[in-house]
Design brief:
Keywords: ATP-binding, Nucleotide-binding, Transport. Pfam families: ABC_tran. Belongs to the ABC transporter superfamily. InterPro entries: AAA+_ATPase (IPR003593), ABC_transporter-like_ATP-bd (IPR003439), ABC_transpr_TagH-like (IPR015860), Bact_Polysacc_Export_ATP-bd (IPR050683), P-loop_NTPase (IPR027417). The chain is of the alpha/beta class and about 270 residues long. It has a domain of about 160 residues: P-loop containing nucleotide triphosphate hydrolases (Rossmann fold, 3-Layer(aba) Sandwich). Helix content is about 35%, strand content about 25%. The strands form two sheets. It has a six-stranded mixed beta sheet with strand order 6-7-8-4-9-10, with helices on both faces. A four-stranded antiparallel beta sheet has the order 2-3-1-5. Helix 3 crosses helix 4, helix 3 crosses helix 5 and helix 4 crosses helix 5. The longest helix is centred in the C-terminal third of the chain and has 17 residues. The chain is globular, with a radius of gyration of 20 Å. It starts with a strand and ends in a 13-residue tail after the last helix. Bound molecules: adenosine-5'-triphosphate. Adenosine-5'-triphosphate binds next to strand 3 and helix 2.
Length: about 270
Amino acid sequence: MVSIDVWNASVDFPIFDAKSRSLKKLALGKVGGKIGSEGRVPIIEALHDITLSLKDGDRVGLVGHNGAGKSTLLRLLAGIYEPTRGNSRIIGKVAPVFDLGVGMDPEISGYENIMIRGLFLGMTRKEMEKRVDDIAEFTELGDYLQMPLRTYSTGMRVRLALGVVTSINPEILLLDEGIGAVDAAFMAKARDRLKDLVKRSGLLVFANHSDEFLIEFCDTAIWMDEGHVKMHGGLREVLTAYKGHDPFERISPELLARLGHSSPVLSGNGGE
Ligand SMILES: Nc1ncnc2c1ncn2[C@@H]1O[C@H](COP(=O)(O)OP(=O)(O)OP(=O)(O)O)[C@@H](O)[C@H]1O
């Protein structure tokens, strides 16, 4: 059984090259974690006293303004960052999908990149060999898959990366928002694969600014604010508090059709 537990965890970033005069200006800003400068080295407190318990089957949306701590929290949940204070325990294999391009090598072919990226996300070579034809077909890149990745356009790279990411079998899937940033036509095609990916993941945490994505893939949510968990509960309840209106009242007919009538998020408070 997979799970992630975090107890009173904080993550600080000491900034060794910050100038104190410009820091004052920053402290007046509205975004980002708290900047402390009591010591000799200024510190950005990106996460402050986080306590969370996530388990198998959880589908958690992560929302909050720029600099609220979403990406840092995802990295803490992935075990990439250790808490500066407090503790964390991760049980299960994590597939961190933070940047679609990470783990890609521009000098090797599309086919080779499929393998490398799959290994990076925790798959074995054998597992990837079984999937490579399916991924190749999904990308529609044809003979380009024999060419070095540096010859690809941005959109072509995204197709390749999405093909691989949606083919894995993650125990813990952590998605940062970049995944939504592809052109609408291809996203429509990738959506079904993403949905299947989420279905076979043990635990999902998905940082995203799009209501539609969150409503389709998540049933609970965490609202981050200045490094704190401001609210953790049912998706509808959290999104309504965060946005100041109920996004479930404005669901597009297309999304409604995709969700079907049985979706837990459409009844009550979003699956809680
Ligand atoms: N490597 C780092 N070094 C120093 N400060 C950092 C680092 N990473 C994040 N921060 C700071 O931590 C705070 C939280 O940043 P984080 O990237 O987690 O926010 P976010 O909610 O993901 O923001 P966004 O929606 O803009 O991506 C910010 O104040 C940011 O400046």
